Amino acid sequence: MDLIDGLKAFVATAQTGSFTRAAERLGISNRLTSKYVAELETRIDTRLLQRTTRQVSLTPAGQDLLARAPALLDELEDMLGSVAEDAKGLSGLLRISAPVTYGETHLRRLLSRFSSRHPNIIIDLRLNDAHVDLATEGFDLAFRIGQLESASLKYRQLGQVRNLLVASPDYLQRYPTPQNPADLQHHRCIVDTNTRGDPRWSFQQNGAEFTFAPSRQLMVNSARVARDWALDGIGVALCPDFVLQQSLADGSLVPLLEEFQTRQRPICAVYLSGSVLSRKVRALIDFAVEEFE
Protein backbone atom coordinates (compact mmCIF):
# COMPACT_ATOMS: atom_id res chain seq x y z
CA MET A 1 0.00 0.00 0.00
CA ASP A 2 1.13 3.52 -0.77
CA LEU A 3 1.23 5.65 2.39
CA ILE A 4 -0.40 8.59 0.60
CA ASP A 5 -3.29 6.41 -0.58
CA GLY A 6 -3.78 5.22 2.98
CA LEU A 7 -3.86 8.77 4.34
CA LYS A 8 -6.28 9.89 1.64
CA ALA A 9 -8.59 6.96 2.37
CA PHE A 10 -8.43 7.64 6.09
CA VAL A 11 -9.15 11.38 5.75
CA ALA A 12 -12.04 10.81 3.36
CA THR A 13 -13.56 8.15 5.63
CA ALA A 14 -13.12 10.27 8.76
CA GLN A 15 -14.65 13.38 7.14
CA THR A 16 -17.63 11.58 5.60
CA GLY A 17 -18.19 9.04 8.39
CA SER A 18 -18.56 6.22 5.90
CA PHE A 19 -16.39 3.96 3.76
CA THR A 20 -19.05 4.12 1.05
CA ARG A 21 -19.11 7.94 0.85
CA ALA A 22 -15.32 8.04 1.10
CA ALA A 23 -15.06 5.64 -1.83
CA GLU A 24 -17.41 7.82 -3.88
CA ARG A 25 -15.25 10.88 -3.16
CA LEU A 26 -12.01 9.07 -4.05
CA GLY A 27 -13.41 7.30 -7.11
CA ILE A 28 -12.42 3.83 -5.90
CA SER A 29 -14.33 0.85 -4.50
CA ASN A 30 -15.69 0.59 -0.97
CA ARG A 31 -13.59 -2.54 -0.41
CA LEU A 32 -10.36 -0.86 -1.52
CA THR A 33 -11.01 2.17 0.70
CA SER A 34 -11.48 -0.08 3.73
CA LYS A 35 -8.37 -2.04 2.78
CA TYR A 36 -6.22 1.11 2.53
CA VAL A 37 -7.32 2.29 5.98
CA ALA A 38 -6.73 -1.13 7.52
CA GLU A 39 -3.24 -1.33 5.99
CA LEU A 40 -2.45 2.16 7.30
CA GLU A 41 -3.48 1.08 10.79
CA THR A 42 -1.28 -2.02 10.47
CA ARG A 43 1.66 0.05 9.24
CA ILE A 44 1.56 2.43 12.22
CA ASP A 45 0.32 -0.29 14.63
CA THR A 46 -2.51 1.94 15.86
CA ARG A 47 -6.30 1.75 15.48
CA LEU A 48 -7.63 4.93 13.92
CA LEU A 49 -11.31 4.08 13.42
CA GLN A 50 -13.96 2.29 15.43
CA ARG A 51 -16.14 0.34 13.03
CA THR A 52 -19.81 -0.59 13.52
CA THR A 53 -22.37 -1.96 11.10
CA ARG A 54 -23.78 1.54 10.50
CA GLN A 55 -20.89 3.97 10.73
CA VAL A 56 -17.28 4.57 11.67
CA SER A 57 -16.00 6.88 14.38
CA LEU A 58 -12.56 8.17 15.30
CA THR A 59 -10.38 6.84 18.08
CA PRO A 60 -8.27 9.41 20.00
CA ALA A 61 -5.34 8.53 17.71
CA GLY A 62 -7.59 8.99 14.69
CA GLN A 63 -8.67 12.41 15.93
CA ASP A 64 -5.05 13.43 16.30
CA LEU A 65 -4.18 12.24 12.80
CA LEU A 66 -7.23 13.92 11.26
CA ALA A 67 -6.12 17.23 12.78
CA ARG A 68 -2.81 17.00 10.90
CA ALA A 69 -3.27 14.87 7.78
CA PRO A 70 -5.49 17.12 5.57
CA ALA A 71 -3.01 20.00 5.65
CA LEU A 72 -0.14 17.61 4.94
CA LEU A 73 -1.95 16.11 1.94
CA ASP A 74 -2.86 19.58 0.66
CA GLU A 75 0.75 20.74 0.89
CA LEU A 76 2.01 17.59 -0.82
CA GLU A 77 -0.56 17.94 -3.63
CA ASP A 78 0.32 21.60 -4.06
CA MET A 79 4.06 20.84 -4.20
CA LEU A 80 3.71 18.02 -6.72
CA GLY A 81 1.14 19.97 -8.70
CA SER A 82 3.36 23.03 -8.96
CA VAL A 83 6.20 20.93 -10.37
CA ALA A 84 3.94 19.38 -13.00
CA GLU A 85 2.08 22.60 -13.75
CA ASP A 86 5.29 24.51 -14.39
CA ALA A 87 5.81 22.09 -17.26
CA LYS A 88 2.30 21.58 -18.64
CA GLY A 89 -0.04 24.06 -16.98
CA LEU A 90 -2.80 23.66 -14.40
CA SER A 91 -4.59 20.31 -14.31
CA GLY A 92 -6.69 18.08 -12.08
CA LEU A 93 -10.25 18.04 -10.74
CA LEU A 94 -12.07 21.06 -9.31
CA ARG A 95 -15.32 20.30 -7.44
CA ILE A 96 -17.41 23.44 -7.08
CA SER A 97 -20.71 24.13 -5.30
CA ALA A 98 -22.98 27.06 -6.15
CA PRO A 99 -26.62 28.22 -5.86
CA VAL A 100 -28.84 26.93 -8.66
CA THR A 101 -30.05 30.16 -10.29
CA TYR A 102 -26.74 32.00 -9.97
CA GLY A 103 -24.91 28.99 -11.37
CA GLU A 104 -27.26 28.74 -14.34
CA THR A 105 -27.32 32.44 -15.18
CA HIS A 106 -23.78 33.66 -14.50
CA LEU A 107 -21.33 31.16 -13.06
CA ARG A 108 -21.63 28.81 -16.03
CA ARG A 109 -20.24 31.53 -18.29
CA LEU A 110 -17.43 32.41 -15.88
CA LEU A 111 -16.40 28.75 -15.68
CA SER A 112 -16.63 28.40 -19.44
CA ARG A 113 -14.10 31.19 -19.88
CA PHE A 114 -11.91 29.76 -17.10
CA SER A 115 -11.98 26.35 -18.79
CA SER A 116 -10.88 27.90 -22.08
CA ARG A 117 -7.88 29.39 -20.31
CA HIS A 118 -7.06 26.11 -18.45
CA PRO A 119 -8.26 23.25 -20.66
CA ASN A 120 -6.51 20.54 -18.59
CA ILE A 121 -8.61 21.29 -15.49
CA ILE A 122 -11.63 19.04 -14.97
CA ILE A 123 -14.60 21.04 -13.65
CA ASP A 124 -17.35 19.34 -11.64
CA LEU A 125 -20.00 21.99 -10.88
CA ARG A 126 -22.81 20.96 -8.51
CA LEU A 127 -25.75 23.35 -8.18
CA ASN A 128 -27.59 23.27 -4.88
CA ASP A 129 -29.36 26.04 -2.97
CA ALA A 130 -28.52 24.35 0.34
CA HIS A 131 -25.20 25.21 1.94
CA VAL A 132 -23.35 21.92 1.53
CA ASP A 133 -20.58 20.84 3.90
CA LEU A 134 -17.40 21.34 1.87
CA ALA A 135 -15.37 18.82 3.87
CA THR A 136 -17.98 16.06 4.01
CA GLU A 137 -18.99 16.42 0.36
CA GLY A 138 -15.42 16.87 -0.88
CA PHE A 139 -15.77 20.30 -2.53
CA ASP A 140 -12.74 22.45 -3.26
CA LEU A 141 -14.66 25.71 -3.46
CA ALA A 142 -18.17 27.14 -3.14
CA PHE A 143 -19.75 30.34 -4.43
CA ARG A 144 -22.21 31.70 -1.88
CA ILE A 145 -24.47 34.73 -1.60
CA GLY A 146 -25.00 36.32 1.82
CA GLN A 147 -23.15 36.53 5.11
CA LEU A 148 -21.07 33.50 6.09
CA GLU A 149 -22.15 31.71 9.25
CA SER A 150 -19.34 29.18 9.78
CA ALA A 151 -16.00 29.84 11.48
CA SER A 152 -14.57 26.81 9.66
CA LEU A 153 -14.67 28.66 6.33
CA LYS A 154 -12.54 31.33 4.73
CA TYR A 155 -13.75 33.50 1.89
CA ARG A 156 -12.84 36.07 -0.69
CA GLN A 157 -15.54 38.59 -1.47
CA LEU A 158 -16.08 39.02 -5.19
CA GLY A 159 -18.85 41.58 -5.33
CA GLN A 160 -22.33 42.49 -4.21
CA VAL A 161 -25.78 41.28 -5.21
CA ARG A 162 -28.59 43.82 -4.90
CA ASN A 163 -32.27 42.97 -4.65
CA LEU A 164 -34.57 45.00 -6.92
CA LEU A 165 -38.34 45.41 -6.71
CA VAL A 166 -40.01 44.87 -10.08
CA ALA A 167 -43.36 44.37 -11.79
CA SER A 168 -44.56 43.98 -15.36
CA PRO A 169 -46.14 46.88 -17.33
CA ASP A 170 -49.33 44.79 -17.59
CA TYR A 171 -49.55 44.45 -13.80
CA LEU A 172 -49.00 48.19 -13.34
CA GLN A 173 -51.89 48.94 -15.71
CA ARG A 174 -54.19 47.03 -13.35
CA TYR A 175 -52.74 48.14 -10.01
CA PRO A 176 -51.43 51.56 -8.88
CA THR A 177 -47.64 51.94 -8.91
CA PRO A 178 -46.38 51.90 -5.29
CA GLN A 179 -44.86 55.19 -4.18
CA ASN A 180 -43.39 53.99 -0.87
CA PRO A 181 -42.86 50.65 0.92
CA ALA A 182 -46.13 50.99 2.85
CA ASP A 183 -48.06 50.88 -0.45
CA LEU A 184 -46.92 47.27 -0.96
CA GLN A 185 -49.62 46.11 1.46
CA HIS A 186 -52.09 46.67 -1.38
CA HIS A 187 -50.16 44.44 -3.81
CA ARG A 188 -49.66 40.73 -4.39
CA CYS A 189 -46.07 40.00 -3.42
CA ILE A 190 -43.91 37.24 -4.90
CA VAL A 191 -41.53 35.95 -2.23
CA ASP A 192 -38.24 34.17 -3.00
CA THR A 193 -37.90 31.83 0.00
CA ASN A 194 -34.26 31.06 -0.83
CA THR A 195 -33.21 34.43 0.58
CA ARG A 196 -31.46 33.84 3.90
CA GLY A 197 -31.74 36.02 6.96
CA ASP A 198 -34.55 38.46 7.74
CA PRO A 199 -37.57 37.52 5.57
CA ARG A 200 -38.86 41.09 5.56
CA TRP A 201 -38.20 43.35 2.60
CA SER A 202 -35.89 46.20 3.56
CA PHE A 203 -35.64 49.66 1.98
CA GLN A 204 -33.51 52.69 2.90
CA GLN A 205 -33.91 56.35 2.09
CA ASN A 206 -31.84 59.26 3.45
CA GLY A 207 -30.48 57.13 6.27
CA ALA A 208 -33.91 55.87 7.36
CA GLU A 209 -34.82 52.19 7.05
CA PHE A 210 -38.25 50.88 6.15
CA THR A 211 -39.18 47.22 6.44
CA PHE A 212 -42.18 45.44 5.01
CA ALA A 213 -43.44 41.92 5.74
CA PRO A 214 -44.78 40.76 2.36
CA SER A 215 -47.93 38.72 2.06
CA ARG A 216 -47.14 35.08 1.30
CA GLN A 217 -49.69 34.29 -1.34
CA LEU A 218 -46.94 33.53 -3.86
CA MET A 219 -43.79 31.79 -2.59
CA VAL A 220 -41.06 29.92 -4.45
CA ASN A 221 -37.50 28.83 -3.69
CA SER A 222 -36.18 30.14 -7.01
CA ALA A 223 -35.24 33.67 -8.02
CA ARG A 224 -35.77 32.74 -11.66
CA VAL A 225 -39.34 31.56 -11.06
CA ALA A 226 -40.06 34.66 -8.93
CA ARG A 227 -38.93 36.78 -11.88
CA ASP A 228 -41.03 34.73 -14.32
CA TRP A 229 -44.13 35.14 -12.15
CA ALA A 230 -43.53 38.89 -12.21
CA LEU A 231 -43.24 38.68 -16.01
CA ASP A 232 -46.60 36.87 -16.01
CA GLY A 233 -48.11 39.93 -14.35
CA ILE A 234 -49.38 38.25 -11.20
CA GLY A 235 -47.55 40.35 -8.62
CA VAL A 236 -44.51 42.41 -7.60
CA ALA A 237 -41.24 40.59 -6.90
CA LEU A 238 -38.04 41.38 -5.05
CA CYS A 239 -35.34 39.60 -7.04
CA PRO A 240 -31.53 39.58 -7.16
CA ASP A 241 -30.21 41.81 -9.91
CA PHE A 242 -28.43 38.98 -11.72
CA VAL A 243 -31.74 37.46 -12.90
CA LEU A 244 -33.25 40.78 -13.99
CA GLN A 245 -30.75 42.29 -16.42
CA GLN A 246 -32.41 41.20 -19.67
CA SER A 247 -35.96 41.83 -18.45
CA LEU A 248 -35.10 45.37 -17.32
CA ALA A 249 -33.21 46.07 -20.54
CA ASP A 250 -36.08 45.05 -22.82
CA GLY A 251 -38.77 46.69 -20.67
CA SER A 252 -40.66 43.50 -19.85
CA LEU A 253 -40.14 44.36 -16.16
CA VAL A 254 -40.18 47.82 -14.61
CA PRO A 255 -38.17 48.81 -11.51
CA LEU A 256 -40.23 50.11 -8.57
CA LEU A 257 -39.39 52.40 -5.63
CA GLU A 258 -36.17 53.47 -7.33
CA GLU A 259 -35.68 56.34 -4.88
CA PHE A 260 -35.27 53.74 -2.13
CA GLN A 261 -32.14 51.64 -1.74
CA THR A 262 -32.60 47.91 -1.31
CA ARG A 263 -30.56 45.33 0.54
CA GLN A 264 -27.17 44.25 -0.80
CA ARG A 265 -25.58 40.90 -0.03
CA PRO A 266 -21.97 39.84 -0.63
CA ILE A 267 -21.11 37.11 -3.13
CA CYS A 268 -18.03 35.18 -2.05
CA ALA A 269 -15.71 32.37 -3.05
CA VAL A 270 -15.63 30.10 0.01
CA TYR A 271 -13.16 27.40 1.05
CA LEU A 272 -12.15 25.46 4.16
CA SER A 273 -10.07 27.47 6.63
CA GLY A 274 -7.81 24.56 7.56
CA SER A 275 -6.77 23.66 4.03
CA VAL A 276 -3.87 24.81 1.90
CA LEU A 277 -5.27 26.22 -1.33
CA SER A 278 -4.07 24.34 -4.38
CA ARG A 279 -2.81 26.36 -7.32
CA LYS A 280 -5.87 25.52 -9.42
CA VAL A 281 -8.24 26.75 -6.70
CA ARG A 282 -6.23 29.94 -6.27
CA ALA A 283 -6.26 30.38 -10.04
CA LEU A 284 -10.06 30.11 -10.16
CA ILE A 285 -10.51 32.57 -7.29
CA ASP A 286 -8.14 35.07 -8.93
CA PHE A 287 -9.94 34.62 -12.24
CA ALA A 288 -13.32 35.25 -10.56
CA VAL A 289 -11.94 38.44 -8.98
CA GLU A 290 -10.81 39.63 -12.43
CA GLU A 291 -14.23 38.85 -13.90
CA PHE A 292 -16.09 40.74 -11.19
CA GLU A 293 -13.80 43.74 -11.49
Unreliable stretches covering 5 or more consecutive residues: none
Give the class from helix and strand content and strand pairing.
alpha/beta
CATH class of the largest domain: Alpha Beta
Give the end-to-end Cα distance, rounded to a whole number of Å.
Answer: 47 Å
CATH architecture level-2 label of the largest domain: 3-Layer(aba) Sandwich
Organism: Motiliproteus coralliicola
GO molecular function: DNA-binding transcription factor activity; sequence-specific DNA binding
Family: Belongs to the LysR transcriptional regulatory family.
Keywords: DNA-binding, Transcription, Transcription regulation
Account of the 3D structure:
By secondary structure, this protein is of the alpha/beta class. It folds into three domains: 3-69, Winged helix-like DNA-binding domain superfamily/Winged helix DNA-binding domain (Arc Repressor Mutant, subunit A); 87-156 and 268-292, D-Maltodextrin-Binding Protein, domain 2 (3-Layer(aba) Sandwich); 160-265, D-Maltodextrin-Binding Protein, domain 2 (3-Layer(aba) Sandwich), CATH 3.40.190.290. It contains ten helices and 14 strands. The protein has helices at residues 3-16, 19-26, 30-44, 60-88, 100-117, 134-137, 169-174, 223-231, 245-249, 279-292, and strands spanning 49-51, 56-58, 92-98, 121-127, 141-145, 153-167, 189-192, 201-205, 208-212, 218-220, 236-240, 254-255, 261-262, 264-272. The strands form three sheets. Strands 3, 4, 5, 6, 7, 10, 11, 12 and 14 form a nine-stranded mixed β-sheet that branches. The protein has a three-stranded antiparallel β-sheet with strand order 9-8-13, with no helix packed on it. It has a two-stranded antiparallel sheet with strand order 1-2. Helix 1 (3-16) crosses helix 2, helix 1 (3-16) crosses helix 4 (60-88) and helix 2 crosses helix 3. The radius of gyration is 24 Å and the shape is elongated.
